[in-house]
Write a structure and sequence with these properties.
The chain is α/β, with parallel strands linked by helices. It has six helices and seven strands; from the N terminus they run E-H-E-H-E-H-E-H-E-H-E-E-H. It has a seven-stranded mixed sheet with strand order 3-2-1-4-5-6-7, with helices on both faces. It binds glycinamide ribonucleotide. Glycinamide ribonucleotide binds next to helix 1, strand 5 and helix 6. Keywords: Purine biosynthesis, Transferase.
Length: 194
């Protein structure tokens, strides 16, 4: 059983889908910590309801990224966390955490990377009048959504799509894809691209 921490900034629907799979014993993981950077995020209520330990912080209360990542790292190491699963965490992982967890950080992003990286990937795809977008699960490196791709699934964009309708279809894919990829990855003894 691998100990993981989930990093999230907002609603936490992906957190929920991972926790559901974990509860059904479909994943060989134990979520030992939720790391969150917004005190009002709904994901906090989800974690509280499940009794998951939380470290929530306000980045503005720290001098810089290094300062708050050092505190996050202390929590991760104290809980014996082995892998980091980013699920709607809207910050770049900095060197402090990367150095310790390189090759053991996984992210989900709502586009077919390298298309539409960064914030508002769904709005970017609509603005570009793209015919398809999708979901990418990938390893995290120091770039913005640039690490090696683990899995991708496409989602068609219709002419009458709004941000809301497209997001809904993308998230249906996310909630199925992320737990199933984590299931596959954690069946192996070592989840590490080196
Ligand atoms: C998800 O769609 C995830 O792919 C995206 O944030 C959303 C979080 O939703 N992540 C990114 O855009 C990362 N660059 P959730 O809080 O309901 O899981």
């Amino acid at each position: 059983m691998k100990k993981i921490a989930i990093f999230a900034s907002g609603n936490g629907s992906n957190f929920h889908s991972i926790m559901e799979a974990e509860a059904k014993k479909e994943l060989k993981i134990k979520t030992s910590l939720l790391v969150c950077d917004h005190h009002e995020a709904y994901v906090l209520q989800r974690a509280q309801g499940l009794g998951i330990p939380i470290f929530c912080f306000n980045p503005r209360e720290y001098e810089d990224k290094k300062a708050y990542e050092e505190v996050i790292l202390e929590h991760l190491l104290a809980e014996g966390v082995e892998y980091l699963i980013l699920a709607g965490y809207m910050r770049l992982i900095g060197q402090t955490i990367l150095r310790e967890y390189e090759g053991r950080i996984i992210n989900i992003h709502p586009s077919l990377l390298p298309a539409f990286p960064g914030k508002d990937a769904i709005g970017q795809a609509l603005d570009a009048k793209a015919k398809e977008t999708g979901v990418t699960v990938h390893y995290v490196d120091e770039g913005m959504d640039t690490g090696p791709v683990i899995a991708q699934e496409s989602v068609r964009i219709y002419e009458n799509d709004t941000e809301e309708s497209l997001k809904k279809r993308i998230q249906i894919v996310e909630h199925r894809l992320y737990p199933s990829i984590l299931k596959e990855l954690f069946q192996q003894e070592h989840v590490n691209i080196g």
